[in-house]
Amino acid sequence: MPNALCRRLGIAHPVLLAPMAGEASKPALATAVSNAGGLGTLGCGYMTPQVVRDTIRAIRAASDKPFGINLFLPLNWTADPAKMAAYRGMLAAAHADLGIAEPDIPNKFEESFIEQFAVVLDEVPPVFSCTFGIPKPDEIAALKARNILVVGTATTVAEAKALEAAGVDAIAAQGAEAGGHRGSFLAPVEQSMIGTMALVPQIVSATGLPVIAAGGITDGRGVAAALCLGAQAAAVGTGFLLADEAGLNQAYRTALQGEGVHDTTLTRAFSGRSARGIRNAFLEKLAGSGDDIPDYPVANAMSRGMRAAAAKAGRAEYLSLWAGQAAGLARAAPAAEILQRIMAEARAALVQDL
Ligand SMILES: Cc1cc2nc3c(=O)[nH]c(=O)nc-3n(C[C@H](O)[C@H](O)[C@H](O)COP(=O)(O)O)c2cc1C
Fold this sequence. Notes:
Elements: H1 4-9, E1 15-17, H2 27-35, E2 39-43, H3 49-62, E3 67-72, H4 81-98, H5 113-123, E4 127-131, H6 137-145, E5 149-154, H7 157-166, E6 170-174, E7 180-181, H8 196-206, E8 211-214, H9 220-228, E9 233-236, H10 250-256, E10 264-267, E11 275-278, H11 281-285, H12 298-302, H13 304-313, H14 335-350
Parallel strand pairs: 1-2, 1-9, 2-3, 3-4, 4-5, 5-6, 6-8, 8-9
Antiparallel strand pairs: 7-11, 10-11
This protein binds flavin mononucleotide.
């Protein structure tokens, strides 16, 4: 075990499967990474509390290795009727093109964090990580009372310091390269665009906590660089999206393997919150509509029907193709093989004569 964080986590390799809520959030992916010596972390933010429970139990049934569970902390949001009506209009053409019923207003926009969190306390996963804020003091205390390691996500030095003051055990330092939604909570995502190379060493220097580097780390060269910057581990997200166990729909897989993979951008078009994905027709069409798109998670819930139908129909132009800036290095293989190759590359990169 290369360092104190890996010893605390009980992992042989300083690599985490980054939490990725949605399609890739499958117990088989987490257990494959954990069984291969990394830390499989699952993004459970979109799961009902019962599915969170089933997921934790499925991981435990398939592996006795450590793993992590990640939740979205609740955000303040408004279901603005005017914006919802405008957004329905923006979705309508896509629904017609996909041959599905007109967009509706869902009766629920997000799962209950309180209920999801109660399941976490009940099931006691070895690691709890979270994004979009700072857990409340009683929540951190309850996790620590159960010896659950608490990881908070920071996209700026100020966020890392705030998380440290709140008592988390480790910081995921998430650079602007990262795929999907980023955790920014003190300033908007668009104003928190610090690259991983600049963010990681500053958070290492500014806090006394172990740091997990995330964002644009897809192969072993990235992991080696993260360790050189002072991180004790690297979280690889996009680099595992093509793993067999992720079982992504074919249109998403094809997009990750095409030329467009080098053109990722930030968009609010699919969810109402800025997230990084491969540029496609839907996000281009909504590029100037920012102010008319409802808040996350309202827009996210409203676009779910379009995205599900597009996945079935193989229509990448209507999918949220979340991917980080180094997505062009992602490989299609079993997750254990991806991890082994990452480790071999990291070792090779670290043994260099200068
Ligand atoms: C498809 C996808 C879904 C994600 N979902 C979550 C999530 O549920 N919780 C979270 O903390 N981060 C989430 N992220 C961010 C990742 O945990 C991680 O920080 C990011 O993938 C790192 O950048 P990379 O994609 O370049 O490896 C997601 C990223 C992707 C690509």
